[in-house]
Design brief:
alpha/beta; TIM Barrel; eight-stranded parallel beta barrel; 12 helices; globular
Length: about 325
């Protein structure tokens, strides 16, 4: 068992503000022009040119964190890098395990260049859903999800990430399963749910119910929860009242107001309006007392995150 100390939890408990990046995969695909087989960025680690583009990408965000005096949550590019994706991506399971280790090593390289200028920098091992991140083909039980994702949780934990981030979860069974896998391994975990244009998970459950169910099934294991891969307009009405709002520690919204189904069909990037994106977050930040981490998701880049980060920084101060 890998046992991590309490330092990661402490960083999020003492009201530090963190920036994170934007839409990594969409940036690599649409802005940089790299092919992502199965929409997985992990194989890019074997391409020297792609690695340079990835370094430039993260450096833009870290430069903003340095200027703003915030911490930074540094993602591994492993959203679709579980062993169960190997055949779709066109690699072996052994290659996929190697790429998870390499992703953590790459993040450490990026971190080392910014140590002393941005503090703290926490590396999160990103794990995406086993199926479609917008419309799951099947709803996993917590037991099945734990079994499916445990190998990747172990690989990232052994590679030295600071915590696991279960991102774009479409249903609670999978969020619970990954949280349990992280708890078994002994590494902190964050769970992020995605919602449709009506503010509910693809299963029809609302965010408050998803948070309550996950906490109950895991003994409150997640450090905090996030909402990601949805435009602020899609979920702002769901952020009403209740103690559950204190469990929302991160937001990574989409730039586009398009539905998930429309985004699946899109052949061009919809990057929305970065300035408006920042203004929309101002109201959200005021309603989320535990919000510490802000970034973006599909279609966002350093412009969007900069606009949002300015709002969070002012609010936290």
């Amino acid at each position: 068992m890998i046992v991590h100390n309490a330092s990661t939890r402490r960083f999020f408990d003492d009201k530090r503000v963190f920036l994170t990046d934007g839409g990594f995969e969409t940036s690599m695909l649409f802005h940089e022009g790299f092919d992502l087989p199965g929409f997985s960025a992990a194989p890019l680690l074997d391409d020297p040119e792609a690695r340079q583009a990835m370094a430039r990408y993260f450096d833009r965000f870290l430069a903003m964190a340095a200027e703003a005096g915030t911490g930074f949550v540094l993602d591994t590019g492993t959203w679709r890098a579980g062993e169960h994706w190997a055949e779709v991506v066109g690699v072996t399971r052994a290659d996929m395990r190697r790429l998870n280790r390499e992703a953590a090593a790459f993040a450490k390289e990026v971190k080392s260049r910014w140590d002393g200028r941005v503090a703290p920098i926490l590396i999160d091992g990103v794990i995406g859903p086993a199926g479609d991140g917008y419309a799951p083909e099947a709803l996993l039980t917590p037991e099945r999800a734990e079994a499916v994702h445990l190998p990747q949780v172990k690989a990232l934990a052994e590679a030295g990430v600071d915590f696991i981030a279960a991102v774009t979860m479409t249903h609670t069974g999978e969020g619970i399963g990954i949280a349990r896998a992280a708890k078994l391994v002994g590494i902190p975990v964050v769970v992020s749910y995605t919602v449709e244009t009506d503010g509910h998970l693809p299963t029809g459950q609302n965010i408050a119910e998803a948070v309550a169910e996950t906490d109950a099934a895991t003994g409150g294991a997640p450090l905090y929860y996030m909402v990601n891969c949805a435009h602020p307009d899609h979920f702002s009405a769901e952020l009403g009242q209740g103690d559950w709002l204190k469990r929302i520690g991160g937001l990574r919204a989409n730039a586009s107001r398009l539905s998930h189904a429309e985004l699946d069909e899109a052949t061009e990037l919809d990057d929305g309006d970065p300035a408006e994106f920042g203004h929309l977050h101002e109201a959200l930040i005021a309603r989320l007392p535990a919000l510490r981490v802000v970034g973006g998701c599909c279609g966002t880049d350093h412009r969007h995150v900069g606009a949002v980060g300015a709002k969070l920084h002012v609010h936290a101060a």
